[in-house]
Amino acid sequence: MRERARLATARGSKSFYFATRFFPRDVAEAAWSVYWFCRTTDDMVDEADAPPDLDQWRLRLRQALDGRGAGDEVLDGFAATVRRFSIPPRYAFELIDGVEMDLVRRRYETFEELRLYCYRVASTVGLMMMHVTGFDGDPRRQAIDLGIAMQLTNILRDVGEDLRRGRLYLPQDELARFGVGEEDLAAGRRTEAFRRLMDFQIARARSFYESGRSGLPYLHFRGRFAVDLAARIYARILDRIEASGYDVFSRRAVVPRREKYWITAKAVCSNALSAVPARPRLFSAR
User: What distance in Å separates the CA atoms of residue 196 and residue 199, rounded to the nearest whole number?
Assistant: First the structure.
């Protein structure tokens, strides 16, 4: 089961899997279990030929969480992780609610509507991982913001792919404000208006990254670096989108492996420097 969870993570998210390699083994295995549950739940909507029975999935999850066993290695493995790390079960059910939104919603009128979707499908993952890594204080707000940042990155990276599935997550009122029509997006036109729209969206995502990363000091040391690394790598996707000239229609922005190692080295140096106490001043300026 653990090996299948690892492989599912490695296939589903190269960036997340890369970061989990810097967790202690027990934390990494828990992270893979959480990801496998989330990925499987999401694929029930995105990959199924017919609408899935999410109510049945909720029922089986409840059975697994209650210790009765769901007869499903994804759910039973995830339930064991929930119990071991005291993850509030409501986050898992909120994630299912978010995935269900893709069955009934194809457009979002405002960012506030989109924000709820981002919370359900991504912030809940961050909140679960917060319990896996361990924490002091209350970093929930920052975990929520980091999840929103990552989901906004997904949305910006996958504009073309989502359109081909009949979905558009960019808020309708913001499309109108910048003068970008859906026909422009469908045709893959990178107009000046589209560039301004993307600049606005990228700036918003970066502001959520900044807020989210401010919660890193709350995390226990053994999990902090990997979470920091995942955030740095994911934020780099925004740079790759900009470097492509905002081509989110014919290519998928990815962070190459060599660049991930460069980001890792930079993160190691940054974390090492932040851990060095300030040297006492020998003389005071007057």
Answer: 5
246: left (phi over 0), alpha (psi -120 to 50) or beta: left
* CB-count burial class (<10 Å; 0-12, 13-18, 19+) for 225: buried
pLDDT in tens, 148-190: 999 999 999 999 999 999 999 999 999 999 999 999 999 999 9
Number of domains in the chain: 1
Our measurement of the distance from residue 125's CA atom to the centroid of its chain's CA atoms, rounded to an integer in Å, reads: 7
Render pLDDT for 87-122 as a digit per residue (tens, 0 to 9). 999 999 999 999 999 999 999 999 999 999 999 999
Write the burial class of residue 244 (CB in 10 Å: 0-12 exposed, 13-18 middle, 19+ buried): middle
Classify residue 180: in a domain, yes or no: yes
Question: Where residue 7 sits, what CATH number does that domain have?
Answer: 1.10.600.10
- Say how many CA atoms lie within 13 Å of 240 toward its Cβ: 20
- 14/265 Cα distance (integer angstroms): 18
Q: Which domain, by its residues, includes 203? A: 2-261
